[in-house]
Amino acid sequence: MNRFYFVLLCGILFGNIALADKPNVLLIVSDDQGYNDLGLLGNGILTPNLDRIATEGTRLTNFYVAWPACTPSRASLLTGRYPQRNGIYDMIRNEAPDYGYRYTPDQYAVTFERIGGMDLREITIADLLKRSDYHTAIFGKWDLGSLKRFLPTSRGFDDFYGFVNTGIDYYTHERYGVPSMFRNQSPTEEDKGTYCTNLFEREALRFLREWAGEAPFFLYVPFNAPHNSSSLDPAIRSSVQAPDEFKKLYPDVEVEYRTTNKHKYADHATVTTPEARRRDYRAAVTCMDASIGKLLDELETKGCLDDTIVIFFSDNGGSGGADNSPLRGKKATMWEGGVRVPCLVRWPGGGIPAGAINDQLLTSLEIFPSLVKATGGETPADLPLDGFDWWPTLRGEQTSPRRDMFWKRRDHRAARIGNWKWVQLGDQNGMLFDLQTDIGESTDLANQYPEVARDIEARFQQWQTEMDASEPRGPFRDF
């Protein structure tokens, strides 16, 4: 073999080795999906592709997000930092549409939902993976700012198609009448009228066909399903939009709509019945699941599914037609149903066991450092993170290093220390629950174990002091 062909062969071989050493990442996040809303759990919902991920990977049953609603949960996922540390510790949204008000374009342009965004000093997982020569993309819900400097393509992503705020109408792509879709850094209405789950699937498949098997990639697909539809029409807003073909997979509903005098918008508003809302919610999940299946199939066709880290979870607890059983509460609450969510991880190439159930205490804060570790990247030495590398725990090599988790939403506070859960809502006395024997948080043990309650409250105060002392970040803190 002459020297030219030897060098060429070595280049090909070593190039393939380098590619194999860098696993791809497919990170999928659903929006407001219930803890029990996986088909394999037997509640009647149809999720064959999520069930496949669970069967071929590991299901986490003790997995938490960092906040019980959209924006802060997503910021913590992408930064690996508590909301109180990264600055996004509340929603970037406007409240007036909740009462039926539609902004004019000039009014909307200066509202907080338009001008607010994640502090530019924050480093995202996309930033770090891009430094490791990953191709990065997001298709779906961003929710961390809509000005150009806040958009994904300014935060480490090469490609973006999706919407920029907390929710949209699935067909018009408007948030309470405001067009909300972007392609990279430009607003677009190019696909108005098309169901958005199908659009995010389309863009993700385009990306995979270009890069899967060619170069390492980080693909983030945050669906808005099964979030309620953001419409000024109460009949639409009171449910989740879903294609008829998926609604037909579920039993017929006798009554679709009802009239109520208790709606925020007006007397005698027409809204969806609870039965129809439940069906619509399930149909939206099943439609999303079908799109997830197509992404898995594309990776399998390209021969790189087993070398791709696939992670799926819900951004917070379920709401609307969701099933959070056996947990108490729902989205926006400090109960388990607000912060404990379904999570699935598939990575045979990384030694993640198939068909396993892992009940170790883990959180979305672990995803940032774990992906950096798996992809051979480096975290800046001066960047405080609130998570750790979870791969040894998922492989069963060690127990989770996490011993506690803290949450704060305005005047609602909660902490988990071991199996103890402490919750304080406003001025009420703190409540204490033993999650090992009472996962539904039904029996308050604060009076029976006052010293435990006091100790956890003190631990919460220590955590709050640490967060307050961290380098301040916008947009909420005063500095």
What does this structure look like?
This protein is α/β, with parallel strands linked by helices and 479 residues long. The chain has two domains: 13-402, Alkaline Phosphatase, subunit A, CATH 3.40.720.10; 403-479, Arylsulfatase, C-terminal domain. Helix content is 30%, strand content 18%. It has 15 helices and 20 strands. The protein has helices at residues 3-21, 48-56, 70-79, 83-86, 105-108, 112-115, 125-131, 196-211, 234-237, 244-247, 274-301, 336-339, 367-374, 391-394, 450-469, and strands spanning 24-30, 58-60, 63-64, 135-141, 159-163, 174-175, 178-179, 181-183, 186-187, 217-222, 257-260, 269-272, 308-314, 343-346, 356-358, 362-363, 404-409, 412-417, 420-425, 431-434. The strands form five sheets. It has a ten-stranded mixed beta sheet, sandwiched between helices. A four-stranded antiparallel beta sheet has the order 17-18-19-20, covered by helices on one side. The chain has a two-stranded parallel sheet with strand order 3-16. Helix 8 (196-211) packs parallel to helix 11 (274-301). The model is unreliable at 1-19 (pLDDT under 50).
Distance between the termini: 67 Å
Indicate the multimeric state: single chain
Number of helices: 15
Mean pLDDT: 95
Q: Mind describing the biggest β-sheet?
A: 10 strands, mixed
Total number of beta strands: 20
| Helix amount | 25-40%
The CATH C-level name of the largest domain is Alpha Beta
Instruction: Indicate the CATH topology of the largest domain.
Output: Alkaline Phosphatase, subunit A
Low-confidence stretches: 1-19
Shape call: globular
CATH superfamily of the largest domain: Alkaline Phosphatase, subunit A
Structural class: alpha/beta
Count of the separate structural domains: 2
Radius of gyration: 22 Å
Q: Strand portion, in percent?
A: 15-25%
- Give the name of the CATH architecture of the largest domain: 3-Layer(aba) Sandwich
Strand order of the largest sheet: 9-8-5-4-10-1-13-14-2-15
